[in-house]
Specification:
The protein is an alpha/beta fold. The protein has ten helices and 15 strands. The strands form three sheets. It has a six-stranded mixed β-sheet, with helices on both faces. Strands 1, 2, 3, 5 and 6 form a five-stranded antiparallel β-sheet that branches. Strands 13-14-12-15 form a four-stranded antiparallel β-sheet, with no helix packed on it. Bound molecules: adenosine-5'-triphosphate and magnesium ion. Magnesium ion binds next to α1.
């Protein structure tokens, strides 16, 4: 049974589009990325799942329970990080932990202190006085301190510095290890690609694709820049399967690669590679890939 299951989930705000007919199933134990640009409908989907807003039509089930009628039973087993994380700015992190423990119907503050140490989060100061990134760290603790079965995180790395982003990704990997299901929204493919098993791509309120991360990256047209000592070999890249847009400038070549790198590496190896960089496409470029496919 899926941990999250929506069927034709639709939310219309007055006469504004929120989300339309979103149908997804997130399986137990998977890390699911929910990707889309600003305004695509990520937060709306999450708020509907959490019963913070009611859908205009369609249904959402979590742990097989109806997200509206059985929201109390769901709450204790779930941890969430809202996108616009506030929780009353007067309260300290420690007070917020206590309040949430009560709302979730659990005793004690779980691993809140241990997580605070790990993320160097300040649980003493009022949340309103913390910087955005430091508030976000407390938000992550509030989402995870009770070791929930399901984590729903809306843009969790917003405001975190690179070191803390790494720490966060490590935490997600550990949560998955202990069997937790994780739903992460993001507008940045790079940020979630290492932790997600599958991704759903949402655009203008509609779910346009669900893919295994590995397949999505395999399809992605990575941009490669290579510098070699012996440029005579660079022309051999032309016509290689998966290689396109080849441009050679002296000892340097730039091109796009779809699929694996094996042919490229074999071709370049005898020519003394000085430098090699491969960049994954941005979410926008992945979208362009979809449009191209649809147009064909
Ligand atoms: N309270 C609201 N009233 C009216 N329209 C809303 C409301 N909340 C969201 N919307 C609209 O719903 C659509 C989806 O917004 P949503 O916040 O879900 O996007 P998002 O994918 O979370 O974007 P972001 O990456 O900026 O957080 C947008 O067109 C937005 O204008
Ligand atoms: Mg949002």
């Amino acid at each position: 049974m899926p941990v999250i299951e929506t069927e034709g989930l639709t939310k219309i705000y007055g006469n504004h589009r929120g989300i339309e007919e979103v149908t997804i199933a997130v399986e137990a134990g998977e890390v699911f990325g929910f990707l889309g640009p600003n305004g695509a409908g990520k937060t709306t989907t999450i708020r509907t799942l959490l019963d913070l807003i009611h859908p205009s039509s369609g249904t959402a089930r979590i742990f097989g329970l109806d997200s509206q009628r059985e929201s109390v039973a769901i709450r204790a087993r779930l941890g969430n990080l809202p996108g616009d994380f506030g929780y009353g700015r007067e309260a300290s992190g420690r007070e917020a932990v206590r309040l949430l423990a009560r709302l979730r119907g659990i005793d004690g503050s779980g691993r809140a202190e241990a997580l605070a140490e790990r993320f160097r989060a300040d649980l003493d100061r009022p949340l309103g006085q913390l910087s955005r990134g430091n508030r976000q760290k407390v938000g992550l603790i509030l989402a995870t301190f009770h070791e929930p079965e399901l984590l729903i995180l809306d843009e969790p790395t917003g405001g975190l510095d690179p070191l803390m982003q790494e720490e966060f990704l490590a935490l997600v990997a550990e949560e998955r290890e202990r069997g937790c299901t994780v739903f992460i929204s993001s507008h940045d493919l790079d940020e979630v690609q290492r932790v997600c098993d599958r991704v759903g791509i949402v655009r203008a309120g509609k779910l346009i694709a669900v893919e295994r991360m590995a397949d999505l990256l395999g399809k992605a047209r990575r941009k490669v820049t290579v510098r070699v000592a012996d440029p005579s070999g660079l022309e051999e890249l032309r016509g290689l399967e998966g290689v396109s847009e080849l441009q050679i400038d002296g000892t340097q070549a730039t091109f796009r690669v779809v699929g694996d790198f094996d042919g490229v590496v074999r071709t370049l190896a005898p020519h003394h590679v000085l430098d090699l960089e491969a960049v994954h496409p941005s979410l926008e470029e992945v979208f362009l890939g979809y449009y191209r496919e649809e147009g064909e």
